[in-house]
Here is the input.
Amino acid sequence: MPETNQAALDFLLTRRSRPAKTLTTPAPDADALMTLLTAAARTPDHGKLEPWRFIVLQDQALKRLGKTAATRGATIGLEPDKINKIADMFTNAPISVAVIASPKPSGKIPQLEQTLSAGAVCLALLNAALAAGWGANWLTGWTAFDRPFLTEALGLAEHEFVAGFIHLGTETSTPPDRPRPDIAAITDWVAQ
Here is the structure.
């Protein structure tokens, strides 16, 4: 039997995200955030391509992104509630890390595998923040995939996109647990 890290296993079996709208200051400072980013970067990365990178969004940058989202949402004709939801996601965040999927040319590692690695970075950052005692939430929304927004607001290259916006801060309330998957219903056991 392997040696169990029971504390880590218990954390993973009970972890839950904190709604972004319940997060407030203080947020992780630069030193604390570097620890979280370092933990997130220990994600499986076949080929050692590092097909992802981080953009730390804070203060005026978040306000700018909220305004840009509102302007872009109106330009493309979104309903006001959809525009406000995304704009508020930025302007109300204490700090946010945009995990940027940045696939690298490779004849060996498919782009899909690189994208999955970027998603794993999002979960690793989320879990690192929660394990460190911070409130954290992984969100996307239409701005994560809207090319003009990505280019104007974040300066992303044409091949890049947002795998997730990880909002970090201090939680103001413990969220209720939600129903979890029925593992037996979604698991097949194959022995032959």
About this structure: The chain is about 40% helix and 15% strand. Residues 111-131 form the longest helix (21 residues). The first strand starts at residue 23 and ends at 24.
